[in-house]
Design brief:
This protein is an alpha/beta fold. It contains 16 helices and 17 strands. Bound molecules: pyridoxal-5'-phosphate.
Length: about 525
């Protein structure tokens, strides 16, 4: 057994005194319990690189003071009866513990943060939780086959460190995918494989941010980004969004250390940033020296029209860092995503990733590389895109069926929509509570993992509805129940009848436009 003793050859204390002092502290601190055998003096001397005599002198002193017992031919043990001062120290330590004053309470840690609400444990029967792929859609057969095949040839690749930026085959496959899909033409050297967008956000913050620097961010914004920047003690400058995406005119004239933006499908409102605004945004970033962090979390699901090129694809000045993830298209449990950085940041991003965790696990990378390169990923996307489009249509049709004309945003892309509640419906928080009483999960900005900085037009009257993980039957019943919940709140006496009646009294025509 080795014990944690570290000697400082430059210390003015003798080696023997250092060994004595450190073992005594281990005993007093309870890390070496009464009865624990100590390493033989020869073994400890070997571990510490000192003479055996030095260790024996330290052991002798500890034994003389009652900390150790030396039994001939058996070995050296921590005493069962420790000296009086040791017992006092132990009593003090346990008293402190019982008052909750352990070390962690006395030494404040530097980190101070809130966690985003991505884990949903509400377990409601009809849950329109956001951004969750259909669990049935996971390509299990292909994945199993690729894992087995990859393991056969794994060899040293599982036992050695790999390039911290990620497996070259995967980075190449991602580069090949991004050109046609997002208009981003880069080589694998500009790509770093990360554990989802969240690690991408952390890495970019590590590259670009220090305490007190300013971060421009959408309002409302994705909590995972807002809370992260907050934890860096950045100064957040929220910029409103409207139905053309980020309001570029409201960006701070002096620029910022970075701007976080979700142009394809604004989180949470679902708006798409118009091409005209994209170009003005890039211009602003170039002139103010701001880096743009483009979170393209769910753009694989575009249902209508051709996709607008990603900001990074339009950028000619190296201002944009692009983040992609497989959390939405395959599954969040994989923790697999990627950063695409401008050439001049590639070295720094690779180093930051190496310092963070020496690179992403190899096996999933190899499997994903094969899945992409062999065409499996494109086939998978085609299949689920079709099924999600049908679910989205089913959701909007049923909202109209029960609530008349409705205003919704975000239907062109992604896995959720935002429902803008008409004036005669309850406010979002109240509607969420009513629906939950009827077994249905619907989400306000706050409960739907968004950060509302205030002064935002959607705070009280937007409901977020994810549709990708529910089948059409569940979607129909879920919306029917929301309508019944609204009826029940309005007409408590006649509420029971409405669940079996698909056309409750809320049906009527409203003047709003339908954004679809
Ligand atoms: C806008 C946005 N970005 C990023 C993420 C998280 O992605 P990842 O699982 O890759 O960390 C989410 C998850 O819901 C999201 O909504």
């Amino acid at each position: 057994m080795e014990i944690p003793v570290l000697l400082d050859p430059k210390s003015r204390q003798s080696l023997q005194a250092q060994i004595y002092e450190q073992i005594r502290k281990l005993i007093l601190g309870g890390r070496l319990k009464p009865g624990t055998p100590l390493p033989a003096s020869r073994a400890l001397a070997g571990q510490l690189g000192v003479s055996r005599n030095t260790v024996m002198l330290a052991y002798d002193r500890l034994a003389a003071e009652g900390y150790l017992q030396m039994r001939e031919a058996i070995g050296t043990y921590v005493s069962f009866e420790l000296p009086e001062d040791c017992l006092t120290a132990k009593r003090l330590a346990s008293a402190a513990e019982s008052h909750g004053q352990d070390c962690s309470a006395r030494r404040p840690i530097a980190f101070d943060g809130r966690a985003q609400a991505v884990v949903n444990d509400r377990r409601l029967a009809y849950d329109f939780w956001l951004g969750r792929p259909d669990p049935q859609s996971f390509p299990i057969k292909a994945w199993r086959r690729l894992i087995n095949r990859t393991l056969v040839t794994a060899g040293t690749r599982l036992t050695e460190y790999r390039d911290p930026a990620g497996l070259i085959d995967l980075r190449q496959a991602i580069a090949d995918h991004l050109g046609p899909a997002r208009g981003i033409n880069v080589g694998p050297d500009q790509i770093v494989i990360v554990a989802g967008c969240q690690e991408g956000l952390n890495l970019t913050a590590r590259l670009l941010l220090r305490e007190g620097m300013s971060v421009a961010i959408e309002n409302p914004a994705y909590q995972g980004a807002a809370f992260l920047y907050e934890s860096y003690r950045a100064r957040l400058a929220p910029v409103c969004v409207d139905d053309s995406g980020l309001c570029v005119d409201e960006l701070p004239a002096e620029g910022a250390a970075l701007l976080y933006v979700t142009p394809s499908h604004q989180y949470p409102m679902g708006f798409t940033l118009s091409l005209e605004r994209r170009l003005r945004l890039l211009d602003w970033a170039w002139h103010t020296g701001t880096y743009i962090v483009e979170d393209d979390y769910d753009s694989d699901f575009r249902y209508r029209g051709s996709p607008i090129a990603a900001l990074m694809g339009l950028d000619s000045h190296g201002c944009v860092i692009y983040m992609g993830t497989f959390s939405k298209s395959i599954g969040a449990g994989l923790r697999l995503g990627y950063l695409v950085v401008p050439k001049h940041l590639a070295g720094a991003a690779r180093t930051a990733k190496a310092l963070l965790d020496n690179g992403h696990p190899w096996l999933e990378q190899a499997v994903m590389a094969e899945f992409l390169a062999g065409g499996g990923y494109d086939n998978h996307l085609r299949r689920i895109r079709q099924s999600y489009a049908e679910r989205r249509d089913c959701l909007v049709d049923n909202l109209e069926r029960h609530f008349g004309e409705v205003t919704v945003s975000g239907t062109e892309c992604g896995m959720h929509i935002a429902w803008h509640l008409a004036e005669d419906l309850p406010r979002a928080a109240e509607l969420q509570a009513l629906a939950a009483e009827h077994g249905v999960g619907i989400y306000t900005l706050q409960s739907g993992a968004a950060c509302d900085f205030g002064g935002c037009a959607y705070s009280e009257r937007a409901i977020m509805l994810g549709f990708s993980s529910l089948n059409e039957r569940q979607i129909r019943s879920g919306v029917e129940r929301i309508a019944a919940a609204v009826d029940a709140a309005r007409h408590p006496a006649g509420a029971a009848a409405n669940l079996s009646n698909p056309l409750p009294a809320t049906q009527r025509t409203r003047p709003e436009l339908i954004h679809r």
